[in-house]
């Protein structure tokens, strides 16, 4: 999957190499949660009882790898600062493919103008509510306060990958990012 390949390479370049047997765990989870990032163990949890399709698995892995990337590069305070959590959830919804047009159509959500931003905002709020015991108003306020900056932070992709083809281009660009300056 090009999303995962890019994120794994970005993590490695940031000094946070991911090892499949150490950093991924498949578990049964409560409710309709598909996965999570455990900051205490730097482990991605995949909910084997709630993921039924490879495409869903790919999105969950990409989403959680974005959290791992944020944890590595930004030292996110996951437990005490809801704005940090909101920022990473915005980035994960924006960059993982969660809000692609096809996924939104599959959810029976339609819209043209500003639909991607609306999807990202709504999914970030839902994710915060799923992992923290805060009110909906607190989650909405945190998302609104950091939305613009975090939505526009496209690292390590450099663009919003709206499809696998976009993710492949972003991966190719990522691989070549330092090629010009390395030859100077």
Summarize this, please?
Helices cover 58% and strands 7% of the residues.
Detailed description of the structure:
With 184 residues, the protein is mainly α. It has 9 helices and 3 strands; from the N terminus they run H-H-E-E-E-H-H-H-H-H-H-H. The chain has a 3-stranded mixed β-sheet. It is globular and about 45 Å long. The N and C termini lie far apart (33 Å). 35% of the residues are buried. Its EC number is 3.4.24.-. InterPro entries: Peptidase_M76_ATP23 (IPR019165). This is Mitochondrial inner membrane protease ATP23.
Strand-helix topology:
Elements: H1 2-13, H2 20-23, E1 24-27, E2 35-38, E3 43-47, H3 54-74, H4 82-95, H5 101-106, H6 115-131, H7 136-151, H8 164-176, H9 179-182
Parallel strand pairs: 1-3
Antiparallel strand pairs: 2-3
Helix pairs in contact: 1-3, 1-8, 3-4, 4-6, 4-7, 6-7
The pLDDT mean sits at 89
Count of runs of 4 or more consecutive helical residues: 9
Strand content: 5-15%
Structural classification: mainly alpha
Q: Which descriptor suits the 3D outline?
A: globular
Report on the biggest sheet: 3 strands, mixed
Low-confidence spans: pLDDT under 50, at least 5 residues? none
How many strand segments?
3
Order of helices and strands: HHEEEHHHHHHH
What is the radius of gyration computed over CA atoms, rounded to a whole number of angstroms?
Answer: 16 Å
Helix content: 55-70%
What is the straight-line distance between the termini? 33 Å
Assembly state (oligomeric): single chain
């Amino acid at each position: 999957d090009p999303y995962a390949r890019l994120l794994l390479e970005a993590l490695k370049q940031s000094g946070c190499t991911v090892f499949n047997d150490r950093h991924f765990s498949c578990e049964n989870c409560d409710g309709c949660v598909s996965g999570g990032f455990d900051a205490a163990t730097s482990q991605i949890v995949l909910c084997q009882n709630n993921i039924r399709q490879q495409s869903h698995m790919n999105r969950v892995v990409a989403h959680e790898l974005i959290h791992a990337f944020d944890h590595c590069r930004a030292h996110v305070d996951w437990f005490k600062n809801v704005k940090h959590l909101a920022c990473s959830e915005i980035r994960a919804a924006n960059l993982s493919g969660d809000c692609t047009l096809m996924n939104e159509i599959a959810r029976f959500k339609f819209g043209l103008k500003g639909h991607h931003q609306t999807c990202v905002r709504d999914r970030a709020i839902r994710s915060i509510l799923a992992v923290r015991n805060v009110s909906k108003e607190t989650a909405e306020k945190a998302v609104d306060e950091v939305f613009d900056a975090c939505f526009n932070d496209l690292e390590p992709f450099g663009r919003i990958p709206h499809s696998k083809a976009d993710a492949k281009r972003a991966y190719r660009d990522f691989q070549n990012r330092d090629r010009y300056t390395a030859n100077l």
